[in-house]
Design brief:
The protein is α+β, with helices and mostly antiparallel strands. Helix content is about 40%, strand content about 20%. The strands form two sheets. Strands 2-4-7-6-5 form a five-stranded mixed beta sheet, sandwiched between helices. A two-stranded antiparallel sheet has the order 1-3. Pfam families: GrpB.
Length: about 160
């Protein structure tokens, strides 16, 4: 069983930001019109993180299929993730830190990652609540943590702070 562990975001910030900028440059060479954003806990100061880097790539609907093909030349498809006409997840475990790339159609149902980051940056109480959730799952099952994380973000999506974005 895979166990989850967390450290302070500050332990990863410098390397995560360096890797983000390198990957952003690669992505924009292939998709110059994309909106490429550093999301996830490494983008939120003072948070706890597993230490992986998350990037969201946002494209218009008419570019989605071409974007999937182009990003597939850089990264492997995350086979364990959902695949739709407006969302695709990629991964690269060889980068430092390991990388997840979420490709979304702008304004689609799963165009939420940048919004999560914005709420966690603007409202410290939500960030602290998320960190408490992580502390509760330290050393426990990754699957159980992912379920709890999903419930947290589903609840966050119902808040006025999220809905106003």
């Amino acid at each position: 069983m895979e166990r989850v562990h967390f450290l302070a975001q500050s332990c990863f910030h410098e390397q995560a930001e360096k890797t983000f900028l390198e990957q952003k440059e690669k992505i924009l060479r292939l998709l110059p019109e994309a909106d490429v954003q550093h999301v996830g806990s490494t983008a939120v100061p003072n948070s706890l993180t597993k230490g992986d880097l998350d990037i969201q790539v946002r494209v218009p609907a008419e570019m989605f299929t071409a974007a999937v093909e182009k990003l597939s030349t850089l990264y492997g498809i995350n086979e364990g993730s959902v695949q739709t006409d407006y969302f695709r997840a990629f991964q690269d475990d060889a980068t430092d830190p390991p990388l997840g790339v979420q490709l979304t159609v702008v304004d689609s149902e799963l165009d939420v990652f940048w919004k999560f980051r914005e709420v966690l940056l603007a409202y410290d109480a939500y960030r602290a609540e998320y960190d408490e959730l992580k502390k509760a799952y330290e050393g426990k099952s990754m699957e159980a943590y992912r379920k709890a994380k999903q419930r947290f973000f589903a609840r966050l999506m119902e808040t006025p702070e999220f809905k106003n974005l």
